Amino acid sequence: MCISVLQLFYSFFKSLVGKDVVVELKNDLSICGTLHSVDQYLNIKLTDISVTDPEKYPHMLSVKNCFIRGSVVRYVQLPADEVDTQLLQDAARKEALQQKQ
Amino acid sequence: SLFINPQQKCTVKTIVIASNIQSFCCLFELTEKHLVLLRDGRTLIGFLRSIDQFANLVLQQTVERIHVGKRYGDIPRGIFIVRGENVVLLGEIDLEKESDTSLQQVCIEDILEEQRLQQQSRQEAEKTKHLALKERGLVMPRSDIMDEYGVQHQY
C-alpha cells in the first residue's frame, strides 16, 4: 500500500541530488553533507560529510563519505529554497487520494 | 549481493550494485577501510567485502573500536557478517583524515576500564535524575536500554 508514496519520496529525493542536506538519525546523530544518491529504500549516500553537533561522535572524524540505511533516518533537513512545498503537498495529497481508491 | 574473493588480488577499485528493479545507491571504493555504526552503539572498522541493498555486510580484518573521550582502543574481531537491519551507518575512512585526528590510541585493557567507569558514572547520573523526576511525578524511560526503534543513544 505504501509503495507509491515511497516512489513519490524516492523521486523527490532524486531531484535533490547534489544539494546540501542534514540527516538526523534515530540515534540523535546529525550529519551534514551533499546528497550523492538515494534508492528505493530511501537509503542515503552523502559525500563530504561533517557532524553538525559538537564532536560527541569522535569516530566520524575520519569519514568523508557515508551510506545511511533508510530505516535509521529520523529527519532529512532540506534547504528551504530548493523545495517547492506547494508542489510536494499537492503530489502527496494526490498519492493519498489514489491510495484510498 | 556481490562477493569479492579475498584470495584474489583486489584490482577491482569500485563496485556498483544494481538490484533488478532500481539501482542501489552504493558506489564504493574497496581499497580503503570502512567504518560501521551499529544500532547497539558499537563501532566496527574493517575492509568491506560485500554489501547488498539491505545493507547486509561482510567485513574482513574487523576491529571493534571503543571511544572514551579523546582516547580509543581496538579489539580485533576477524571476519564479521552483519545483518542489514543492525546497520546505522557505513562510512569510507579517509586515510589522510585518520592520521590528522587528535585521538590517542590506548591498549584494550585501559579503554575497557575507562568505558566501564564512564558507563558507571552515566548510570549513577541517570539514577539520580530518574529519582528526582519520579519525586515530581514524571516517569522517564531508561535511556541505557534501546528505545522503541531499537537504536542505542548513548555511545
Helicity range of the residues of chain A? 25-40%
- Rg of chain A computed from alpha carbons, rounded to a whole number of angstroms: 15 Å
Cα shape of chain A: elongated
| Helix count, DSSP H or I runs of 4 or more residues of chain B | 2
Tell me the distance between the termini of chain B. Answer: 30 Å
Task: Report, as a whole number of angstroms, the end-to-end distance of chain A.
Answer: 11 Å
Task: Please give the number of β-strands of chain A.
Answer: 5
Helix tally of chain A equals 2
Largest sheet of chain B at a glance? 7 strands, mixed
Protein name (chain A): U6 snRNA-associated Sm-like protein LSm2
Family (chain A): Belongs to the snRNP Sm proteins family.
Main location (chain A): nucleus
GO molecular function (chain A): RNA binding
List keywords for this structure.
heterodimer; A: 101 residues; 5-stranded antiparallel sheet; 2 helices; 5 strands; elongated; B: alpha+beta; 7-stranded mixed sheet; two-stranded antiparallel ribbon
